[in-house]
């Protein structure tokens, strides 16, 4: 069964991206997970695609 979870708020700086990313990582432990970044800044996309500096 497919389930959808939306994290939204009109105000900026409320932690939507942080909560969404942490929730996606947590849920991915239990099965396939898709995070859709609809913010123009693309911060969630950047978090998962940037190279990790050692």
Automatic annotation (TrEMBL):
One Pfam family, short name: AAA_31
InterPro entries: AAA_dom, P-loop_NTPase
Transmembrane segments: none
Domain AAA per the UniProt entry, residue ranges: 3-49
Gene3D superfamilies recorded: P-loop containing nucleotide triphosphate hydrolases
Protein name: AAA domain-containing protein
Organism: Enterococcus cecorum DSM 20682 = ATCC 43198
């Amino acid at each position: 069964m497919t389930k959808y979870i939306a994290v939204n708020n009109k105000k900026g700086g409320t932690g939507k991206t942080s909560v969404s990313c942490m929730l996606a990582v947590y849920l991915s432990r239990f099965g396939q997970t898709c995070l859709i970044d609809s913010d123009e800044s693309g911060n969630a996309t950047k978090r998962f695609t940037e190279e990790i500096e050692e």
